[in-house]
TrEMBL record:
Compartments reported by the entry: Membrane
Cellular component GO terms held in the UniProt record: membrane
InterPro entries according to UniProt: Tetraspanin/Peripherin
Membrane-related topology note: Multi-pass membrane protein
Keywords: Membrane, Transmembrane, Transmembrane helix
Chief subcellular location: membrane
Keyword Hydrolase included in the entry's annotation: no
Transmembrane segments: 14-36, 56-79, 86-112
Pfam family, one: Tetraspanin
Protein name: Tetraspanin 16
Length: 161
């Protein structure tokens, strides 16, 4: 016999789909955390002292991604088995994750001008210390010249019709 299509079954399918998207977003967060945490050699040479804060962000992305994947799969299981207890557990933890994300975003936006000024000053000091000239073969100068050539040419020629 065919499955009945009631509003309840449609809501159940929608909830399974949403928990699948939640698990996929957790996997994306895990990938971002792995990239930031373990590709740090490139970032350390450019950012210097400020790269330690970036590693903390990488580990935060790893933890939040793992938690999001677990909550997504637990919610999907609870929806498919119609377990109210597990659904309530997932709901409470998703509210906790949402509160943490809002708190972190508020702190970042509150201290953004201070961090931008410090990072800009650090970049100027690093550029003055490490840049040797246009035709020098060292890595820092070659990368900075590449950024300036592609960035300036893109800005100059993309605005013309």
């Amino acid at each position: 016999m065919a499955e009945m299509h009631t509003p309840y079954s449609s809501l159940k399918k929608l909830l399974c789909l949403l928990h699948g998207f939640l698990a996929m977003s957790g996997v994306i967060l895990i990938g971002l955390g792995i990239y930031v945490s373990f590709r740090g050699a490139v970032l350390t040479t450019v950012l210097g002292v400020f790269s330690t804060h970036l590693f903390h962000v990488g580990y935060l992305c790893l933890v939040m991604g793992c938690l999001t994947v677990l909550l997504g799969f637990a919610g999907w299981y609870a929806t498919s088995k119609e377990s109210r207890g597990i659904l309530l557990f997932c709901l409470v933890w998703m509210v906790v994750v949402l509160i943490v994300e809002i708190t972190v975003a508020t702190l970042v936006l509150a201290f953004l001008p201070i961090v931008q000024d410090a990072a800009l000053e650090h970049n100027f000091v690093a550029l003055k210390r490490n840049y040797r000239g246009y035709n020098e073969p060292d890595d820092f100068s070659v990368e900075w010249n590449l950024v300036m050539e592609t960035g300036v040419s893109t800005c100059l020629f993309s605005s013309r019709s």
